[in-house]
Structure formats: structure tokens, C-alpha cells
Amino acid sequence: MTACLVCGNQYLEPVLSLGSSPPTCAMQPVAKPRGPETHYPLDLLYCHNCTLAQLSVQVPPGELFPADYPYSSGNSQALHDNFRSLAR
Fold it and tell me: pTM for the whole thing?
């Protein structure tokens, strides 16, 4: 990240580093390995201009939500009810 996602300010102060991690949905179960994992830094940056806290790296959407991404909102009655309520 070279500039703030909201205001474009180029001074982003590192405030916390938690090492690195694969994208959550890419974490491999022990019984089902799919090859080497890509890890991304979990570094939090702070913009003094607009006060946004943001990660130092944007993971490509295709890696966060691959074709076999397991989440589907259509499977939850609670979400159906919530979306219906929001639409009203």
C-alpha cells in the first residue's frame, strides 16, 4: 500500500505487525492439502489525514473468493430475513 485507500495520503504510519497469513478461505485443512500457500503480511497502517486504519497489502479478490468459495448467503434463513427487512 503506497497511499491511503480513502484520501490518497502517502504517509501511512505502521502501527501493528502480526506477521503473515494465507487468506482465510485459502487455509488448507490438514487432510486436504492443495499445494503451497501464499502468505500475505498482516501489517496495520494508520493514515493521519483521514484516520483510516488499513492493511498494508490488498489481496487479489480472486484469491479471497475463489470459484470454490464455500459461503453462500442463500443457505441461511436468518440472512434471507435480514435482507428482506433491509429492503423494506
Answer: 0.64
